[in-house]
Amino acid sequence: HENTGLRSQPPPEEQNYGATAAHGRQGPFVSVSGNGPAKRHYLIAAVLCYGNLINFMDWFIVPGILLDIQKYFKLSDGDTGLLQTVFILCYMLAAPIFGYLGDRYNRKIILGAGIFFWSGVTLGSSFISESYYWIFFSSRGLVGIGTASYSTIAPTIIADLFEEGKRTTMLSIFYIFIPVGSGLGYVLAAGMAEVTGDWHWAFRITPCMGGLALVLLILLVPHRIQRRTAAHRALSISGTIRVAAEKPGVQRTAKTTWCQDVISLAKNWSFVWSSLGLTAMAFVTGALGMWVPLFLYRAQVVQGIVSPCLQESCSSSNSLIFGGITIGTGILGVIAGAEAARRLRKINNKADPLICATSMFISALCLYIALMVAETNILSTFIFIAFGELFLSVNWAVVTDILLYVVTPRRQSTAIALQILVSHLLGDAGSPYLIGIISNAIQAKNAHSFQWSFWSMQYSFIVCAFVGVFGGSFFLLTSFYIEEDRKEAEQ
């Protein structure tokens, strides 16, 4: 077994142990063989999937009780949007660092430290008083750093435990916990606020779940897991799938080759346009994830369905419903997108970008309709938001497939790293804050009222519909180049 890092020599703590590696059951590490995955490998994968569930639950606790937090700390819409922006930025910047450490040092220790860190910070944030809102902002950034350690390293362990066929299945299961965990984050936050009457308790459950994950990690995950050869597909340091399919014996000059790869990718129009389409998707999903429950609450106040929340604890029913929608549409959308692509590729070589373009256009239309009917019919708003999220979710797996066959394997690590960086930086890192400051600007020019509080959010949300149309256009442009770029990558 060879190391899957970027260096020519394996790291000292996870190198090839020769004959000892063939008898991993007797040693302190698990070896990877061609005899198929052992039962313990599935158990390890289950522990890692459980950790991923908690990871994404922590992401969406704040949006689930956003109204309570906004009232408690007396935040404007702009300041409230900054909460998620701080989280995403810290996550985005920390991910490559943990990827670098994960390639060189013991991954179990890094995973355990990350779980302990983000769980501790989440628990501590539940005791911050209203006078220290800046500490609460800082705590969300620290949680982003902690979760980055998990998202970047846990998938690489799964990739090393299973052969290619099983690996795809296990990674799909691992990533399906992203929408499930996101939706459960809303449900947990809203449910705890509803049951206890105090939103602070929402931040005290996931640390307990994180403690259980840490215990399982210590007991069940081996100290060392053998890395696969560089010829196998591994995972990127950015927290998504990396393909390290370098030919044996080929030596690369890291700095020069990276620059050449970036220049080459900039000339790959399928990669460029599909990455911009993914950025538009991230922009829309980031804004929706942060603001939809609060928008629905303001719409209900305007319609007279609920009374304005003047006490500390507010109704969290919208977060509960939206959490369920997120879980359902996320799972169904990913499965439907993959199946549609599989069938349509047989009759049209441009099927993938056309599926993405069509889904983005339909999603943008559904979101626009949801915004327009929100003032008069809340049930229709829920329905069209659900369809909007469903068609957004269709694209996640398909976009990854596009990258993997239009970019030559030698450049796929760089391509995915660039795509993730751009999609976060220009997408979900800024969209919650942008929606918030647009809402602030509209409210500042009009008399303070519940009606204008709703209208300001409605008008600012229209940005997402237009960005969705741009995203569909980017994918449509991808279809013009995809056949040529695919043939070039295959050569």
From TrEMBL:
Belongs to the major facilitator superfamily. Spinster (TC 2.A.1.49) family. Residues 44-483 form the Major facilitator superfamily (MFS) profile domain. CDD domains: MFS_spinster_like. The lineage of its organism: Eukaryota, Metazoa, Chordata, Craniata, Vertebrata. It is found in: Membrane. One of its GO terms (molecular function) is transmembrane transporter activity. It comes from the Eukaryota. Pfam families: MFS_1 (PF07690). SUPFAM superfamilies: MFS general substrate transporter. The chain crosses the membrane at residues 42-62, 82-102, 109-128, 134-158, 170-189, 201-221, 271-292, 320-341, 353-373, 379-404, 416-439, 459-482. Signal peptide: none annotated. Keywords: Membrane, Transmembrane, Transmembrane helix, Transport. Residues 1-20 are annotated as: Disordered. It comes from Nyctibius grandis (Great potoo). One of its GO terms (cellular component) is membrane. Its main location: membrane. PROSITE patterns: MFS. It is a multi-pass membrane protein. This is SPNS3 protein.
